[in-house]
Structures
1.
Amino acid sequence: MEAMKIDLLIHSASQVCVVPGHDGPQRGGRLGDLGIIENGAVAVADGRILETGPSADLRARYTAETTIDAHGRCLTPGFVDPHTHLPWAGDRAHEFEMRLGGATYMEIMAAGGGIMSTVYQTRAASLEQLVVQNLPRLARMLAHGTTSAEAKTGYGLEKAAELKQLDAIWQLNQRQPIELAATFLPAHAVPEEWSGRTDDYVQHIITELLPAGADWMRRRQTTLFCDVFCEAGVFDVAQTRRIFTRAAELGCRLKVHADEFEGLGGTKLAVELGAVSADHLVKTPDADIAALGQGNTVAVGLPGTPFGLGHSEYTPAKAILAAGGALALATDLNPGTTWCESMQMVMALACRYMGLTQAQALAAATLNSAHAIGRGDEIGSLEPGKQADILILDVADYRQLGYRYGTNLVKMVIKQGSVVSKQ
Amino acid sequence: MEAMKIDLLIHSASQVCVVPGHDGPQRGGRLGDLGIIENGAVAVADGRILETGPSADLRARYTAETTIDAHGRCLTPGFVDPHTHLPWAGDRAHEFEMRLGGATYMEIMAAGGGIMSTVYQTRAASLEQLVVQNLPRLARMLAHGTTSAEAKTGYGLEKAAELKQLDAIWQLNQRQPIELAATFLPAHAVPEEWSGRTDDYVQHIITELLPAGADWMRRRQTTLFCDVFCEAGVFDVAQTRRIFTRAAELGCRLKVHADEFEGLGGTKLAVELGAVSADHLVKTPDADIAALGQGNTVAVGLPGTPFGLGHSEYTPAKAILAAGGALALATDLNPGTTWCESMQMVMALACRYMGLTQAQALAAATLNSAHAIGRGDEIGSLEPGKQADILILDVADYRQLGYRYGTNLVKMVIKQGSVVSKQ
């Protein structure tokens, strides 16, 4: 039998972590099934996974344009980061310093800090400046193993700036290897111009901003998520429902920021409306956790956020899993609360503060996070037919992920069959 | 006036953080004085800092063999990591997984886990294996900006293996750029062979191991620290005093592991005996904090350790500073509680959990940590005459350190005037 010619064969890996999804995310007690093949190989053709299996077997059956010997290394799916606040302009290192120096929230606001600081910087940036400032952040994400991510608006909070953020996401998608799913979040905060008139701003979102976002989506012939920061003092559940109802009518899929500081019922609403994900989920009420077990909304834990703020309470992962929920992980990368591009760091936090094992954290950061951006059928695992988004780790055992932290264990990143980053 | 010819000129840096020490560490409220020169330059000759100053001034007065344009970048002293447990063999990722899976301490011990697991792996390794396994860890440290560090024994716990660890430190010193200060720690734990006979093991240390360590020190014509794990259930204060008294007679300088789980008085003892540093200091009693303010012993916070264990209590930095103490930071890099090579990550933890500002964390990780290994006159700042151990950061402002975390903000590492790492 003659060997079949393919594009890429990665062989002799100490472990190939397939992270099998079958027909959905790994829910509840199933989370952490890595489907490990020892001394394994991955065959790639046309940018997709053709087959995984024992190294000797695949080496006998395929010859490849490019062959990579992964002896002593572990292969995993590329990380999917389903919640970032890219793209933004500027930084808030000075505000962080003020906070550490003992400044109160009001003092920081008076000094021009807080979310509006990033809003003004993002509004002031040109589209090209916004793109150029965010390319190095994406390069860091890629070097640390993220091959697909979500990016969102929400630092514009006015029509032109929100659309500029969408255009920046579009351009960033073309100008580097990470695939970005776009989310529209004019309901990130009530901007100063609308201060004290939240209902009016909600109406403005519904009549002006959402149609503009939907128009952008149609022109770009892409998909668009709509997200709302459903939180005490920001948007309540009734306002969130109004925005989501209109967004769904306009063809958007839904995501929600819920329960970061108080449990208002945003998670239950998300499940009711069939949202793709509900994110943060620190103060989630029991009834909302139970709802996650019944519905198809993926719970996204963002442990970088409480860590970034020095808080001690994290997403109740064990309760969510006990209820049969699907749990994913994301960075929440943003300049205010947590500037960390690395999903490896997020996994290390999830092991220590959410009680996940390394295997659970890895499945949550790949297969389940792919489902959290509605792309679980395309990415997030090394199953045949999926995109060949593959990490070659600098270690032989996946259990080094989460155990070691603060550095980069990714040796090589492969996106759709091509090597796009090497350390 | 003709320009003077020198080896290296780094110019046009947005900030040069000198971290002036004058005649000692930055104590108490003085911690965080960075002596920043904006649009600055550093002149280097014969591997040492010749001068720092305004870029225009130094460019007019010097021509250099090698010139580096640091436009948009910040320069700092190389990080000094004064507490690691290098060199060791193997890892304990499986033990970490068991712990996350809910295994008790006793179950982990029964499965062959705990410190003795690393002791057996380290005893079984040949000298060359021990060296080769630890080179990549040092390479990661270097890439993240550590230019000098401490390394110690304590995974041998018997004469031959303790001396093998010292020889490994010696060889590691020759085979990569980071300078290592050696510490002798046969009093890291009571090995299984001496279980229940702690006093006998202490006597064995005094009569057999310390003389062997001192003999090694004389043969190598180097300095050697002696350290004791002074902790409830391990070595008490009286045993620690006996070991230290003999070590000092033999010419060793002193360091101590104290107050990690209980405050026994090890810190006060360290100050009394003029130890160079007292490390961990989580449960340090008030009287011991006051002693730090009076003596010359540097307090070394190791925030990676409580973080690694998922604990919530950290070194009381503010109380130590309020008492006028000198505070340094270190990784505690080890396979059991915290495997993180990055001093940047340690600074990020210190900002969030010890309440340090970024400037305080930077001074604690450079000048003060140099004093914590007795080398404050040679390294840890960019003052004239000191070794030219310099970091070029990928950011314009030092305040990005600590604020951003989980990635590597170091662009280039210069050791004794030579570029030794680039990202």
2.
Amino acid sequence: MQKLEHIGIAVKNLEEANVLYAKLLGREHYKIEEVESEGVRTSFFEVAGLKIELLEATKPESAIAKFVEKRGEGLHHLAFEVQNIQKSIQEKKAQGFVPIKETVSKGADNKLICFLHPKSTGGVLVELCQEIR
Amino acid sequence: MQKLEHIGIAVKNLEEANVLYAKLLGREHYKIEEVESEGVRTSFFEVAGLKIELLEATKPESAIAKFVEKRGEGLHHLAFEVQNIQKSIQEKKAQGFVPIKETVSKGADNKLICFLHPKSTGGVLVELCQEIR
């Protein structure tokens, strides 16, 4: 885990959330990106080098739709940057952490991503992410 | 909001969580601090300049005890550093955000703190914190 790359926040409506978070954080979002494979539309804010990613579900079977239905809007995941995601997954598995999927996915913001199951990480959904070079 | 000062994570047992997060983050916690007035015992990890604060309840009426009972362990709050907490509270109130208490409290890590109610911040419990000089 090199650094916290971003914090993911689940929202119901991205446009409304962009207005709210712009007020809260004192700055505007700098991009919007849809990740069709994950069923999400995302927007990004930057606060002193840290990214805050708002996630809105684009289909009812999206993990974000299920999360919002079950727990409401709010903090969703922490994403840590790693150099080599395949190696990191193997290391984390050897330590007892459980990947949600065995395969790496393409996430927003030009990243390869893999989530560790919150049951193995003290209730925190942890994303490993590696910049696609 | 100058920067994200720390991320707060609610845990059931601080000693067990310290072991788990040391494995997850690849480093040990660097301090433990009890904040009696808030009914919490905390430990701190540092990842590339960002603090991760684990919070364990020390009494059943603690906000952390209630959170864990209702939602389980996991992401609890985001704390943003501000220069002048009284001024920030007034600004945030004027923007429609709602402080949980009108008065500033003494938090862990030599900070004056104030929480904004998650009902006003899209479900995210937001802490404003100012270093005590």
3.
Amino acid sequence: MRRFTESDLENFGTRCFASTGMPLTDACVVSRALVSANLRGIDTHGVARIPAYLKRIRAGLINPRPEIRSSSPMPFSTIVDGDNAMGPVAASIAVEACMRAADTLGIGAATVRRSNHFGAASVYTVPATARGCVAIAMSPGAPSLAPHGSRAALFGTNPFALAVPAGRYSPWSLDMAASVAARGHIRRAAQEGRAIPEGWALDNEGAPTTNPEAALRGLMLPFAGAKGSGIAFMVDILAGVLAGSGFAGEVRDWNVDFTGPADVGHFFLVMKIEAFMPLGQFESRMETAIGRLKALPPAEGVEEVTYPGERSGSTESERRRIGIPLGNEVLRPLAELAAELGIASPSPTL
Amino acid sequence: MRRFTESDLENFGTRCFASTGMPLTDACVVSRALVSANLRGIDTHGVARIPAYLKRIRAGLINPRPEIRSSSPMPFSTIVDGDNAMGPVAASIAVEACMRAADTLGIGAATVRRSNHFGAASVYTVPATARGCVAIAMSPGAPSLAPHGSRAALFGTNPFALAVPAGRYSPWSLDMAASVAARGHIRRAAQEGRAIPEGWALDNEGAPTTNPEAALRGLMLPFAGAKGSGIAFMVDILAGVLAGSGFAGEVRDWNVDFTGPADVGHFFLVMKIEAFMPLGQFESRMETAIGRLKALPPAEGVEEVTYPGERSGSTESERRRIGIPLGNEVLRPLAELAAELGIASPSPTL
């Protein structure tokens, strides 16, 4: 493992994406979304994905120079047509529209159609907390999850994320996949040749498996049966059916399906805390809630009770200070890419 | 099991609640909320609860003649101070305010403070679908759930509900407790002397138990560890911290704690589909999504793949037609109550 500064990785990613003809500002938005995920420890959604994203852009399946159009049927609502842009580019426009609506009306919501994988959902929710807002983000993935009671894939692992400000604590941030485990963890286990725990997945014949390769070819299981399945369907409805983008099996797997655009949708909602309570009062109550949680006696084998987003928050502080650690399995493909593009590889800080 | 018509049970419940001095319209709202739960098969939240609610009103811990005040800090937002009203009374005022805001602005949200247990969460979300809306409802319960990583209760089983219109299908409706199982199921198992499955609960020393009585005195476990725990905390934040009502352990158990008002909060959000897409188009896309789900091959031992709310929807159609079945364990206390109040017991249809 070597460590890299946030700005070095951001610059590297920006150069990579700009090499496809993407405007520099868009390349920077995409690169920032990936590095933000790394900063918070969500390394499955970080710079490791640059080569695969580039491959898809180069295959003509993501539009590096989209003409993104927005409309606003009602003052609070925004519809973004991504024109097959990189996910973070279309998503950022939608989140900004929500923020503007929240600034004037107290609330804003946006759907995005014809977009692509937007990375880690919490990348879009956590920043809103600094502006005194609750933020929600969701986006359906390619079919990989067997709905409760079935043995065939229909939904993606469909992340649902919600964040709120937490006063002197780092933002409270829930970011969960509807599967028992995030697909990125299985992909990473496959890259590293590790087995996955039982109960995470079925092979393509519907039998339980601990082989990550078989799991990636097979089916993910929803968490808690009907509950995870219901959350996956909810995400499919708001960020697929309502968004006017792919739903119920239509989203293409950006990583392996090169037959057409992925047609990914997103849904965002941003709401001002002050629409209900002075922000200072809310934050002080959040501090009380978190303080009570952290004071609970830990379960056996647990060192400390933590709140959602706490570990990501402290990882972010640490990585801003001492850099983002990347292993050879991530660095090697990035170095190959750098050589190919004639740009400098990221330089480790130690 | 004998069957009763919806209107007979509603009238009976209304008379019971009116006996406490509650205005007839409020008594009717409460009774309807309970019967609506019965209609949808959520019998744990139905008329079986009348005696316990009456007991709490009579103990002076719920206000039968509240002065409920609403304010609207922003056009979309409503804050309801329930003045310790019955939950359905304060909740209905908040939902109606959300609906009015949605009619004019496309979206409305409301918090409720100083309320009481509001019954089944989907009672407040499903009706909004008939008005072309997505609706969200949540409300924290008394501490009974051990947050992930801890061995002490802090949150309730904190239901989260979301419903959307589904065209020719009955409404799509997710209504889930953050615990592995709803507390009402454990209470019912206790009433019926049945054991509960392992993994649902811990006894009050933190050991796994299948004894429902021990579970009720002990701790509920969140579904899927950190995920269910995160959903419970989310409900506690929006419908407790933000609502200005009890949070993080402060809500009193309406069933057993007679030391003061329960201080329950609620959060509602209602959003017009038409803010993003013509309703007809949305409904036709929902029909496609549900059709695809129902066409999936069922898992072994499963007869039919169903969508969230489907079983409740068909139970509702059936029960409207042939009546609501109630067993002796529910009827006996209702008959005792009827005798005491000098009113007629519900009359079975067969």
4.
Amino acid sequence: MMRPEDDGSLGQQYKRAVEVAKVLHGLCKRGYRVMLVHGNGPQVGQELIRSEEASTKVPMTSLDACVASTQGTMGYQLELALYNQSHALRVATVLTLVEVAGDDPGFKTPTKPVGPFFTALRARDLAKHNKWQMTEDSGRGWRKVVASPKPIGVVNIGAIDAAMSRMDIVIAGGGGGVPVIRDSNGRMSGVEAVIDKDLTSALLGQLLGAQMMVVLTAVDHVSVDFGKPTQRRIDQMTVAQARLFLEQGQFPAGSMGPKVQAAVDFARTTGRPAAIGAVTQVGRVLAGQAGTRVVAD
Amino acid sequence: MMRPEDDGSLGQQYKRAVEVAKVLHGLCKRGYRVMLVHGNGPQVGQELIRSEEASTKVPMTSLDACVASTQGTMGYQLELALYNQSHALRVATVLTLVEVAGDDPGFKTPTKPVGPFFTALRARDLAKHNKWQMTEDSGRGWRKVVASPKPIGVVNIGAIDAAMSRMDIVIAGGGGGVPVIRDSNGRMSGVEAVIDKDLTSALLGQLLGAQMMVVLTAVDHVSVDFGKPTQRRIDQMTVAQARLFLEQGQFPAGSMGPKVQAAVDFARTTGRPAAIGAVTQVGRVLAGQAGTRVVAD
């Protein structure tokens, strides 16, 4: 719901929400029921900047709380946009906590930078007092780095399932979900981390018995040998083929990698197809006429 | 979830959430199913301060978006606290948009101050560029004032009802709900306003067919002639009696007034009892052994 050229205002975000709403409304008219998982990178970035800028006046917030916050604000924009497509659409946004393992290897070496750039002085202060892990970002300043642990369970799956039974569109798992861990006594607590939204999508699709998972991106399809003379588009690949491509490092970790991994997860665990394609072509992607399909072996 | 003596940190808010969670868990053990509406005044205040402090770096947010945001963050804290009371509790937080009338008289003369105090210069700037209505607050600076319109419909009632059918506790309508209006074409948009959470509770209770509405406060019961030698506690009053007290100005507009009005609304529209009492005595309030009960005529 935000692109690099956008100004980041709520008005601009609403316009992006309308683009998505048109696509989803089209699907509902054709009889689909939709579970929507959205990202929240730029929005969480804004929240963390606000928290830092106001830190001398009000207590700082935390990354997990910011994910919960953006589930509210982005669900709100999406719902407005959807109702304005059709008053008859039944839409729900369900707060979604997603469990990750406290011993996920990601926590040992956090790599995902989030939030504002800090001076060295402020970075040292935050590392000391807030126990944040900080990294210098190629001369632009210091940033907080967090883990990107694997989603292992959806705390609110019962509520999402109840909503799906009566709604046309359920918005859940936004930003990959609010990351929580359980200690050895089962006590649950939030943790500052970023869960990949595509992996959360795959898990939700699996738990809900979805007929198909579609990962919507800015590109039309998945390619291998990207940028080389041998580059070619993939219309369909099996789980085994996709895994081989992943092992070969065909898909960058920060972009197409998790999307292909999520498609593999869904196809492998459910036996049903997953697809990756452009948001503007969603109808054709669902029909197998566009995008890249991942099918069980 | 925040008291005047609290520092406003997430850690402190979680402790308050635990206090509420204990009470709600106790009710669930006795077989109640609970729909919880919480306030969000201090939390929205924090959000608006963050928005102002970061306004030169990221676009400002709006009050309606902040309500959506606090539904996420406060639902998150409450859910954690509830799961940590009992892993078996089934809890859902549903984003709640509440409709108000575009011609609600509140919009003509906004009276509710929200957010930070501004200098006269900044206040003039915000009034001019953001079309905010500003008021001088007894020498402490300038503040934004917004309307407090009456809730007339709950956009997400279907989703809340679906959640209630499968959950022990549903958190919805937080902060009174995200205020939205419809124009003559039915187009829905957000509006910067504060909906009274007790009036939203009454409406939700009515729409869901709740057996009872309980307004939890810091005081044990409702009193008339408060602070006078003739002061007396009310154990029970009919809708007609409560209305007479309201007309007499027995209950201040900013505190007990809307609570009694909400109890009246619920008892009048449903024929079922409403009660007002202390959060620590909720069991006795439900049993009619504590607090103040409002019953249909």
